[in-house]
Input
Amino acid sequence: MRGTTSLALAATLLLTATATARAGDILQLRDGRFVEGVPLEIDGDHIVLKYESVPVRIPLDRVEDYSIEGAEPPEAKTDEEREKRASGLVRFNRRWVTAKQRLALIKKKRDAHRAEMEDLRAHQEWRNRYRFSTKHFEFESTLPPSLNEKYSKLLEAYFAKFKKVWKTKVPKEWGKLKVCFYHDRDTFERTAGVSGGVQAYYRFVEPRELNFFYDVLAPDDTIGAMLHEANHYLTDLLSDDFQYPHWINEAMAEYWASARWDPDTKKWQIGGVQEGRLVELKSDLDKQEWYGLRYLLSNESNNYKHYYWGWSFVHFMLETKKYEKRFRDFFTALSRAKGVERKRGSNNFKRVSGEESLRLFLQRMKLKESDLPALEDEWRAYIDGQKSTGPRGLGKAGISAFRSNRRLRAKRLLGEAIAAGSDDVVVHLRYAQLLRADPGGLAESEKLLRRASELAPLTARVWAELGYTIYLQKRVEEGKKYVALAREMDPDDPYLLIEIHDALVEHAEERAKKKAGGE
Ligand SMILES: [Zn+2]
Output
């Protein structure tokens, strides 16, 4: 599933390398991506992509197939292959064909892929975006059709599930919700006018809109962000002019963001543990910080801690049989029940005060305020019973801290994720970026980026970051080579063009020239 989703987008990056086709060599990776126009060479159990700046090595077990112009087909490895080879046949997928047929088949596959890519690329211009609608949504998208279909079906299924659980319907005058999909962060930021680490957003005032981008390095996060934001919209359907308190609004969105849909069985799995959130919580607990229950339930602030303390409490409530129904009742009562005091606030939304919210919680849960300490103890035991989640959770928590610019925490968590054996590219990338700012951190940063380049050898930005880190260590020529490699891989990436190359390398040259001129 992951492979096919990353295929179309990532391939667009790689195909740009064909602008200066230097060879008829073709490489197809197991994840579906093609590279062409880069001379290939076999070296033991690796294939070497001979980019002009720096050669890139990829283990053959990540390669689906390849063709090197003028060279023999891949060496026969099994007895069966050797036998067939003797009678002039080679393997292509599961068939046996002649070497000439094999080449023709690879080229045919490549041509079909190329045509598809050209079409995708044309639609990546916002003005040429795909537009289509489903039962509840109007989509505008620069994603490829396969992802449009996948995500639109996911959102419809999510809508149906939510409707069933909470008995919601769309107010007539709202119409269908507009959803914008962007194929990368740059297009998202440019078109939606957002910046600074935002993953997705829901515009909660008219005209309502859902916006998110596809993160090629972390497609699962794309889905998480989409379900979180979509949940805010669905929650708004409970009442068209009520705004939920921040703590429970974000907590519920995080609870639902972990939902996963199986398109084959058409079944949802709800209530999964948000590993990153759990790590963030345990990290507070390690520092003896506790977010008291009374404080949480009556909170009126927009504290970031609500994303994980709130998530944990909602998870505790909804995943504990004896509380689930009453807590759900409390949630709907906040916006719908009679006899609840709601006051108009900003954007003319109705809100409840912290104390009113607490009162309603106690009423619907059939508890007294004096019961709260016992409930709090039970919650604490529930948290203690949730196991630490290893490198994945640490990595997610670290990336989340990085996004919200809590650098110390990010550094600690990402370091722990790496020490626990994380093989996540983004974890390596972010940790390397943080270490770069440390005195003496550059060598470690370089090590991490070299590892990241093994994990994602065809991701231009990883090479650009490596080049920059090398460059900062005063190995200017070597650093420039890696930046040049990144540009060979992805000549259209504005980040590489502007931030890394022009701003750093070329300006440094200018500075050096000025300095030389002054001396
Ligand atoms: Zn949110």
User: Anything to note?
Assistant: Confidence is low (pLDDT under 50) at residues 1-22. The two ends are 59 Å apart (CA to CA). The chain is about 55% helix and 10% strand. Residues 228, 232, 250, 253 surround zinc ion (CB under 6 Å).
